[in-house]
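PROTOCOL LOG
Step 1. Enter all chains and additional molecules of the complex.
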Amino acid sequence: AQKVTQAQTEISVVEKEDVTLDCVYETRDTTYYLFWYKQPPSGELVFLIRRNSFDEQNEISGRYSWNFQKSTSSFNFTITASQVVDSAVYFCALSEAEGGTSYGKLTFGQGTILTVHP
Amino acid sequence: SQTIHQWPATLVQPVGSPLSLECTVEGTSNPNLYWYRQAAGRGLQLLFYSVGIGQISSEVPQNLSASRPQDRQFILSSKKLLLSDSGFYLCAWSSMDPQPQHFGDGTRLSIL
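Step 2. Run joint prediction.
Step 3. Record the structure below.
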């Protein structure tokens, strides 16, 4: 069975600090997809990124960057120069795609609460 | 562009009362649809998913049921609510596996 672990329950930083959110996953499939979502205080989940298991290139989008390490089954998320608006719960999620039978079902980690103080 | 609507935003119901939460998607056809529950503001649990009209798969045994009467409509129901049904319910859609899922704004359900 697949599993996603976000060991950091809560992180508190001061504005402009860099912060890394850890995500470790378990799966027996060779083809899978990893996601990060942001949940601001208003509650909706906002999609941030999708990465497939064959693409280990790191990705940068503005102040956000993602480091995918297949060897350690990790998909970490770094926010550079954090801002108060980054305060939210961040979820890492995994979808298995072997044989096309996953139907896109996501397994979520427990989430990391990020608080950025001014 | 595609949008997802979920209502109501908040709901307070007595124990034993029925429930009906509705979710509709616009701007796409034959989406995969999902219902999640988030308890105590953490961790999302997949409750149901649907790949087509009338096709419902349940992920966990519970007091809830789901239906998909139309292509872009997904309904979460219960005949008799329990205290343990309280939580934040999120509907989501995706165009196909493994596209990312896009979520509605959620319904906060409180059972008294």
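Step 4. Note key features.
The two ends of chain A are 41 Å apart (CA to CA).
Residues 89 and 104 of chain A are 22 Å apart (CA to CA).
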